From TrEMBL:
GO BP field: signal transduction
Family stated for the protein in its record: Belongs to the cyclic nucleotide phosphodiesterase family.
Organism classification: Eukaryota, Metazoa, Ecdysozoa, Arthropoda, Hexapoda
Keyword Electron transport carried by entry: no
Coiled-coil residue windows: none
EC number: 3.1.4.-
Record-listed AMP binding positions: H472, N473, W474, Q475, H476, D515, D626, Q677
Name of the protein: Phosphodiesterase
Cofactor: binding details: Binds 2 divalent metal cations per subunit. Site 1 may preferentially bind zinc ions, while site 2 has a preference for magnesium and/or manganese ions.
Keywords, ordered alphabetically: cGMP, Hydrolase, Metal-binding
Active site as annotated: H472 (proton donor)
Residues annotated for Zn(2+) 1 binding in this entry: H476, H514, D515, D626
Length: 752
């Protein structure tokens, strides 16, 4: 320990002394200060020193300054203690003219910097009044009996213009007195300090640059292992040891379900290699403390820390000296903890902590992406299995294809090409044959050189793709496709240039596939229930329509189903784009967005060369086809209403089970079917088909059919009101014989 008797001094240079109030200092003193006279140093030697300070290394600069001070102070040797206020460390990197192989570092106690500043008003102080860590550092370099040590602090303005000590200059065994030494140090650093601090700052910038480059290389390595979590964790630990120069490391991932920290990698070896797994409670031990607080824990002496469990050392024979434990976070919180043991050659310092903080960000991001990637891989695998299972049950065998292509029936039904024909009369098993016949009649087979067996297989897969829901099933798809057939023939859409042949093909195919794999529920239900479909498509809107489109493309890509493969590349791409636009157009929400533009187009006249007009017309034709059931006779319309409301009420029942209040039209106990139907026909169907009739006058028969159905629903209200009062539900009345008799009487009176 340094003592007063050894004449060790703690001296404050004159340029750091408080000068007091200006009026207490005479004019001559003020002039002396402004001139900054050199009192004890040789100006030429100081200038020569400044001239020689051209190195870009603080260590080399310190060698030259030490050499100069040793000569000027006539001392045995000189060394400088670097004080880092940010990292709160005292560092010695050069003794006399020797650069140390490894810097001597001491972590300063709290308040050390302020402790040094309290000596500003004193000329000398004994070493034992300094911070204990600095005393230990001086004794480590200057063993007892070596001689007296005079310590002179060098102050400077650093962060936010606060004055703080940046160096402690230690002069060992000098023949000069303390006042002289203080003045020499003061005059030397008056001209050298800025250069020294700038060089130190430059070194720090270079260190940060190197560190950033290292971290970027680390990030590159980490992201190359995203596909295998165990390999990624090994790489994380390898890089963590390398960056901090640690002997060992462990990595714990947080298991939030069981509130455990699970050791996935330790000592660079995956537990999977040894069929072991280490689990600790998420709130116990050093790792548990870091996981709970989210803060870095830097332990200088592991055995003195209350959270350290030395039993592991006793079991393994490994001696833990110090520990740096840091959290690994993603955007949602803690995902794991990394624990580094035994800094080689010393303790983990402030810079190791900074590296750990930066490194943990890359760790968190890479682990999060690896886990997400693994989930995606698992989901893809499950999806493939599901698709295989689905395709197995949906399998269309060759005999089914032959039954369609070699069907002996002529498939001639009276009135099939008239708007008042009811396509639901066609037998279920014969409907694929009628699809082929309609495409033949429209000239698609010959024009596009479509292979009949490929087309038949596609149609059969589409048929199987429709679920057995009450309304949005294969029969509905066939009815919509039949309307497309009627529109193409009766309005002569291709012959008169309203649609190209390719657009006509896309129109017919879109009608056939527009509701494939419909779940019997609406878009809003999918979103409210947070279904898988909603998670896939809700951000784009038209959830179910986008799913129908996806299933259409999937079916088209099924082996042996791509009947469009004879198209040129450009026509193929264009056809798929048309199918996309047309299927998405069946969402009534999309229709209402362009309804006014469609009406304006019809009133001003359809322009065949206007791309927007062609799009509006295609969308209108799709909407009309989708609603074409409402243009049939009352008997058919009532049957369709039964199917629609069976589907609506099933959704309403599901919503009630979910604790939600269904809309009235979905609630079997509240729905007033005739009122809902009248509102739908008047505000939607009539408006849409009137636009169609404006463009194609022959479509007025469709408008008239809807108006007649409106009269039928109006006449049915008396029966609904009567029986609903008696306690029957609206759906029960819809299926009653009394309703049919009432409406038939209305129809007969209209005819008369």
């Amino acid at each position: 320990m340094c003592t007063e008797e050894k004449l060790q001094f703690f001296l404050i240079p004159p340029y750091c002394k408080k000068l007091g109030v200006l009026n207490e200092i005479d004019h001559e003193t003020t002039e002396d200060m402004s001139l900054a006279k050199i009192e004890v140093s040789n100006p030429s030697r100081i200038l020569q020193l400044v001239k020689d300070l051209t190195d870009k290394s603080t260590k080399k600069l310190e060698i030259k300054i030490n050499r100069y001070l040793k000569r000027e102070c006539e001392s045995n040797f000189v060394f400088m203690i670097n004080l880092h206020s940010v990292s709160e460390e005292a560092v010695v990197q050069v003794i006399q003219e020797k650069i140390l192989d490894e810097n001597i570092r001491k972590v300063l106690s709290e308040g050390t910097i302020n402790n040094i500043l309290t000596f500003q008003s004193n000329i000398t102080k004994s070493c034992d009044q300094l911070d204990l860590k600095i005393q230990e550092l001086v004794v480590e370099i200057v063993p007892e009996g070596t001689g007296e040590v005079i310590i002179v602090p060098v102050l400077a303005k650093e962060h936010r213009d606060d004055i703080s000590p940046v160096y402690l200059v230690c002069i060992v065994t000098s023949s000069k007195d303390g006042i002289y030494i203080s003045k020499v140090v003061s005059e030397t650093f008056r001209y050298c300090l800025s250069l020294l601090l700038n060089t130190r700052q430059c070194e720090e910038e270079r260190r940060l640059k190197t560190e950033c480059q290292s971290l970027l290389l680390v990030a590159r390595k980490l992201f190359s292992h995203l596909g295998h979590l165990s390999d990624l964790l090994k790489e994380i630990m390898t890089e963590a040891r390398r960056l901090t120069n640690a002997e060992r490391c462990s990595l714990f991932l947080l298991d939030p379900d069981h509130m455990h920290l699970v050791a996935k990698v330790f000592d660079g070896v995956s537990p999977a290699d040894h069929n072991t797994e280490v689990r600790i409670a998420a709130d116990q031990g050093i790792a548990g403390h870091v996981a709970a607080t989210g803060e870095i824990l830097n332990i200088k002496d592991a055995y003195k820390h209350p959270l350290f469990y030395k039993g592991m050392d006793e079991a393994t024979g490994f001696k833990t000296r110090n520990i740096l434990c840091f959290p690994i976070k993603d955007e949602n919180g803690i995902v794991g903890v990394a624990q580094l043991c035994n800094k080689i050659g010393g303790h983990f310092d402030y810079f190791d902590e900074e590296v750990a903080r930066a490194f943990s960000i890359y760790c968190g991001i890479s682990i999060m992406h690896s886990l997400v990637y693994k989930k995606i891989q698992d989901a893809q695998a499950r999806s493939r299995l599901s698709n295989e299972l689905m395709m197995y049950h949906m399998q269309v065998n060759q005999q089914d294809v032959l039954d369609v292509t070699m069907c002996p029936s002529e498939h001639e039904v009276p009135g099939f090409s008239l708007f008042n024909f009811t396509p639901r009369k066609i037998l279920w098993k014969e409907s694929p044959c009628f699809v082929i016949e309609m495409m033949k009649d429209l000239g698609f087979i010959d024009t596009f050189r479509i292979k009949i067996d490929t087309l038949a297989r596609f149609v059969l897969y589409v048929k199987k793709g429709y679920r057995e829901v009450p309304y949005h099933n294969w029969q509905h798809a066939f009815s919509v496709a039949h309307f497309a057939y009627l529109a193409l023939k009766n309005f002569q859409l291709v012959e008169k240039g309203y649609l190209s042949k390719l657009e006509a093909l896309a129109y017919f195919v879109s009608c056939l596939c527009h509701d494939i794999d419909h779940r019997g529920t609406t878009n809003s239900f999918q979103q409210q229930s947070n279904s898988v479909l909603a998670s896939l498509y809700s951000s784009e809107g038209s959830v179910m329509e986008r799913h129908h489109l996806s299933q259409t493309i999937c079916t088209l890509n099924t082996e042996g189903c791509n009947f469009l493969d004879s198209l040129s590349h450009d026509d193929y791409v264009k056809c798929l784009d048309l199918i996309k636009d047309m299927i998405l157009a069946t969402d009534l929400a999309s229709h209402y967005k362009i309804h006014a533009k469609q009406l304006n187009m019809a009133q001003e006249g359809f322009n065949k060369t206007n791309a927007q007009h062609r799009y509006y017309l295609a969308s209108l034709l799709m909407t009309c086809a989708d609603l074409s059931d409402q243009t049939k006779d009352w008997t058919e319309t009532k049957k369709v209403a039964q199917l629609i409301y069976a589907e609506f009420f099933a959704q309403g029942d599901l919503e009630k089970k979910m604790g939600k209040e269904p809309a009235n039209m979905m609630d079997r106990e509240k729905a007033s079917i005739p009122d809902h139907q009248l509102e739908f026909l008047r505000q939607c169907c009539v408006c849409i088909f009137k636009i169609l009739a404006t463009i194609f006058p022959s479509a007025k028969v469709l408008v008239n059919a809807i108006k007649q159905n409106i009269l039928c629903w109006e006449s049915s209200k008396r029966i609904f009101d009567k029986y609903c009062v008696e306690g029957k539900t609206s759906y029960e009345v819809l299926t009653s014989e009394e309703l049919e008799l009432e409406v038939q009487n209305t129809l007969e009176s209209i005819k008369e």
